[in-house]
Write a structure and sequence with these properties.
The protein has 196 residues and is mainly beta. The protein contains no helices and eight strands. β4 and β5 form a beta hairpin. The radius of gyration is 25 Å and the shape is elongated. The two termini are 39 Å apart.
Length: 196
C-alpha cells in the first residue's frame, strides 16, 4: 500500500509527502551434507566428516516508510529542498531517520548548478537471509552519506548535458562472506566449509 501527494502552495513552494507499507514473508529450508574436505583428498583420520547442517523456518515482517520534502525558491536564482525519510523494518528491528538537503542555482545562459547532501539507508531484505553465517540471520541497516555536485546545461536545440561528481561514505556495512578456495562459478558457496 503506498500513496504520494504533492501540494503546491505557490509558485515558489512545493510540499511532497507520502508513505509505503508492505507485508512480507520468507520461507526457507536448507540442508547441507559435506562428506570430505575438498582441499584435502586424504582419508579423514579424525572422524570429522560427514558434517550435516540443517536450517528451516519462516519469517514474517512489515516494512514501513514515510517521507516529507519541502522545495522552496528563496531568491530568483536559488531553490532549496529539505527532506526527511523514516524507515522501519520489523524483521530487523531497524527504525531510521534519513535527512536530505539539496540546492539548485540558476546560472547564466541556461545552465544550472546542483548541490546535494543526504543520508540513505539500506535495510537487510527479508528474503536475503544468512542462515548458515555465524553473524546471525539479519544485520542492521547500512548507512550511506552522500555529497553530490553537478552542472547542467540546456542548449537552444533542446539537447542537454550534465556533469556530476559525488562522494559516498558508508557506515555499518553488512559483513561480506567469501570462499577462500572455491572457484568463482560455485553455485552454492555458502554451503562450503571454506566460507570466511
Amino acid at each position: 500500500l503506498q500513496q504520494h501527494w504533492q501540494v503546491e502552495r505557490s509558485e515558489s513552494r512545493l510540499w511532497q509527502f507520502g508513505f509505503d507499507l508492505r507485508q512480507q514473508r520468507a520461507d526457507y529450508q536448507l540442508h547441507s551434507l559435506v562428506y570430505q574436505d575438498p582441499n584435502d583428498p586424504s582419508e579423514d583420520a579424525l572422524g570429522y566428516y560427514p558434517v550435516e547442517t540443517q536450517a528451516a523456518g519462516r519469517e514474517n515482517g512489515t516494512l514501513m516508510s514515510a517521507y516529507a520534502a519541502n522545495r522552496l525558491r528563496l531568491l530568483k536564482p536559488l531553490t532549496i529542498e529539505l527532506g526527511l525519510r523514516y524507515d522501519r523494518a520489523s524483521h530487523t528491528g531497524d527504525s531510521d531517520l534519513s535527512p536530505r538537503l539539496s540546492a539548485q542555482i540558476d546560472l547564466p545562459q541556461g545552465s544550472l548548478l546542483r548541490l546535494g547532501w543526504g543520508q540513505y539507508r539500506q535495510i537487510h531484505d527479508i528474503h536475503d537471509e544468512t542462515a548458515l553465517n555465524a553473524g546471525g540471520r539479519y544485520d542492521p541497516s547500512e548507512l550511506s552519506t552522500q555529497w553530490t555536485a553537478g552542472v547542467e546545461h540546456l542548449f537552444k536545440s533542446g539537447t542537454g548535458v550534465r556533469v556530476e561528481v559525488y562522494r559516498k561514505h558508508s557506515d555499518n556495512p553488512r559483513p561480506v562472506y567469501r570462499n577462500w578456495v572455491a572457484g568463482a562459478l560455485d553455485v552454492f558457496p555458502e554451503t562450503n566449509e571454506d566460507l570466511l
